[in-house]
Amino acid sequence: MTELRINGFKQVKEIIKKLLPFIRFKKEQAKALYRAVNLLATKESDKLSRSDLLKITDCILVIQKSNYITKQKKTKRDILKILGLTP
């Protein structure tokens, strides 16, 4: 197994866009990553709206669901709290 690290939302967006037609395993995870990084690449993090953050939260949950089972998975409530979307 190989791991590759890519820095920068724009770079990740472009690479995922090019790879999507060829991905078979974890395609839903790749699509969710593309949706999230598309939002993150177009706006500064402090300019993301509540709606944007909720969309990113949903993408995180899709990506997490596709990962192998671990004890450290976050719930939707945990992610919302991290993003400051809970009272």
Question: How are the SSEs placed, and which strands pair?
Answer:
Elements: H1 9-19, H2 27-42, H3 50-66, H4 76-82
Helix pairs in contact: 1-2, 2-3
Write a brief caption for the model:
With 87 residues, the protein is mostly helical. Helix content is 59%, strand content 0%. The chain has four helices and no strands.
- Characterize the main sheet: none
Termini separation (Å)?
Answer: 41 Å
Rg, Cα atoms, Å: 14 Å
Any idea what the shape is?
Answer: globular
Give me the number of helical elements.
Answer: 4
Tell me the series of helices and strands, N- to C-terminal: HHHH
* Percent helix: 55-70%
Describe this structure in words.
By secondary structure, the protein is mostly helical. It has one domain (9-82). It has four helices and no strands. It has helices spanning 9-19, 27-42, 50-66, 76-82. The longest helix is centred in the middle third of the chain and has 17 residues, at 50-66. It is globular and about 40 Å long. 7% of the residues are buried.
